[in-house]
Amino acid sequence: MVTYHEVKIGNTIIGGSLGSNTGLVVGSIFYDKHSVVKDPFTGEFDETRAAVLVDRVNKLSKRYGVQMAFDVIAASSEAMQRYLEFVSAHTSLPLLINATEAEARVAGLEAAAKLGILDRCIYASLSVDTEDNELEALGRHRPAAVMILASDVCDPTPEGSCEMIETYYLPMLREIGVTTPIVDVGTMDAPSIGLNIRQIQAIRERFGYPAGCAFSNCFPQWTSLRQLGKEWVNLSLGASLVAIRAAGGDYLHYGIIEKAAISAHVAATAEMFYGYAAQELDGYKLPGGHALWKMFKLTEEQE
Asked: d(Cα 114, Cα 222) in Å, to the nearest integer?
């Protein structure tokens, strides 16, 4: 019987049997062309507006009883350092260190070490393009979690993802001393979410690792849906989140941080169902701040 592993990231715990912990609901800040960013390379940004966005997520996480995190995206090492310093000072929630360039990700690890926040950071992520200096940096500065992108374009089946973990990632993870990664199975387009569901199930059953995806990646290509309007996009976004979570997904990336409110509400609704079943059928003791209790006190939280 498989053991479903848990990963502790600051005050957050993800993984385990479905419903024993809530999924991690993640949104991006300082993303490409984010309106709060003034200069993506120096990292200059509107601190007042950014603080409002961060505070909103803090309040949503508490109000709804779901675990949330910030995907901190930077275009340069300088920007990454500034962003991490700012966001970490305004929240105690987990932070993803994310950048297209390896140099910026490594700078994020070094900045997190200096700030003393490695224990609530996720390195996002190891991939087929991972460079040796990244592994060396991870050996020096160990974050709370390391994410791996198990998306094999040559074999996008559940078996392909599992084989990629087995042959490519496990040796790499052993090298840096990581026993339980967070697996991102990669979302290409809307139909591929169906593959993601099967991949997540297969990975959890074979390895017991927390897994999930950035299902929001499918929406930019879904032009016919966008033409219907924002309300319909949000409905499909919510349906995607619930479908991934029902498959056991622990990593639930909803896209831009401006979508935090609808994502928190949808996630909490689902977690209420899964949490109750885990409590009544599996014997798990849910914390007092769990979505199961929060969803019946939403009007009180607004007062």
From this structure: 41
Question: DSSP readout, 146-191?
Answer: EEEE---TT--SHHHHHHHIIIIIHHHHHHHT-SSPEEE----SST
The answer, yes or no, to whether residue 47 has pLDDT greater than 60, is: yes
Q: Is the pTM of this model over 0.85?
A: yes
Among positive and negative, which fits the CA dihedral 264, 269, 277, 214?
Answer: negative
Stretch (H or E) spanning 212 = strand 211-213
- How far is 251 from 21, CA to CA, in rounded Å? 12
Examine the pLDDT at 303 and tell me if it is beyond 50. no
Residue 89, Cα to own-chain centre: how many angstroms? 20
Pick the CATH number of 6-267 from 3.30.420.40, 2.40.50.200, 3.40.190.10, 3.20.20.20: 3.20.20.20
